[in-house]
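hi! just following up on the protien thing from before. the input was this:
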Amino acid sequence: MAYLTDIEIAQACEMRPIGEIAKTAGIDESFVEPYGRYKAKVDPALMKNVNTPDGHLVLVTAITPTPAGEGKTTTTIGLADSLRRIGKRVTVALREPSLGPVFGVKGGAAGGGYAQVVPMEDINLHFTGDFHAIGAANNLLAAMLDNHIQQGNALGIDVRKITWKRCVDMNDRQLRFIVDGLGGKPNGTPREDGFDITVASEIMAVFCLASSISDLKQRLGHIIVGYTYDDKPVTAGDLKAVGAMTVLLKDALKPNLVQTLEGTPAFVHGGPFANIAHGCNSVMATRMALKLGDYTVTEAGFGADLGAEKFLDIKCRMTGLKPDAVVVVATVRALKLHGGLKKNQLGQEDLGALEKGMPNLLRHVSNIKNVYGLPCVVALNRFPTDTDQEIDFIIEKCKELGVNTKLSTVWAEGSKGGEELAREVVRLCEEEKADFHFSYDSETSIEDKLKAIATRVYGGSGITVLPEAKKQIKRLTELGFDKLPVCVAQTQYSFSDDPTKLGAPENFKITVKSVKVSAGAGFVVALTGDIMTMPGLPKVPAAESIDVDDDGKITGLF
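and the predicted 3d structure came back as:
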């Protein structure tokens, strides 16, 4: 049987004009700024005119990702449609995709099959230009920093201690480490420099955590770009860059409104990576979605140890948000891969491999339930090759933790395939009581926070802090940044910092090689293992298969 591709399904959808979607969400047209027929910005002034209480917040996360696929975004969108199908007023809040994965290996991030947000081509490409604005603001600050040095360096910035990087929203390993300012005095001061991918930049983090223009300005002003010769921090505020940066970001800060294939209102806004940033959509979009829906379904990137940990320990800590229920997405295929099967063997029943892989799911579920104190359900994306025995095995193991498992076929059936999951989410929200708490106390030291995450969330035995990271922690503590939450930059493929350790490894330590402060975002970043803030393209990038015909029809996006 031949299946339609994601882009073919999306292009066959008869989208409703964005004004109709806004009406469905209860947004007056005076607050809607259309970007064409099917997407719009929503004026944040809307929030002053909405007096309804917040709806239920549902967080969708997943097991540790594998090449077999889990379908977290697809489940998020399908669950929203399914909640609407059973009569609930629903909004969905997602991140915007980065061009890096779109043209690299992962593909887009608009869902899949019959659970997508549309127009998927626009969302996966330039969309409303938010990422370009973020990159421009980032690089304006870099230009003003280097210009200040060129024009006399009144602040006494030590070029050896510059921490601010330029950024571009593309996987380009060639730009990780560069030397610029060459060509003589008129062309700047020669120095080591580098690029981050835009979604890993501090501007992206600031953008997603800001609650208003004034809060955005304040956060931008706190960004540290480097240090003086006497080791004092230099900020964007010191460089008088804040006003101009805010001008570039003011329209981007307005949440984007689109729709699912079934017409559910969707806010798609902001897009930090969860393995090297905090991995959640914007606070402004989440808050807007909560005011407009009885249920808001959102997601956090990669596995629960990354995206959900940062959603709960960073975003919720800063905003007072609290999920009423959490969905952990898994597949039989991915769990068998965690159990040691090769990718080409996943279609055959293997209860032994499934049993070996199950600890990965169980650790994530236990973390949500026991570390964070939140009601939880497992959403099992069913594939045609999954057997009843395999599914029953997962259901029984999860029951031992007091957590139900619901099958999901939203990829193939849309909202119809997620009704059972939707009803369980409603039950959790209305009948189960959350006892939410963080995985660490913000008053503890930076090292103690990192130890708490490594042991309580990852299941490791502790951390190893390299000498350079120890010096950085000491300096950040002296500057008063030790009470900030921590954002761990870590491989997405394992609980450990070794991507080859699948399942639920034990007796490992997380190696902390570098620590820096994102003072504007309001957290400390710890780089572990071999993590890079600028990815590279694979041997055969997805870009090789993407094309457009004479009528403007795009092919190859997935």
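The first helix runs from residue 6 to 12.
The chain is about 35% helix and 20% strand.
cheers
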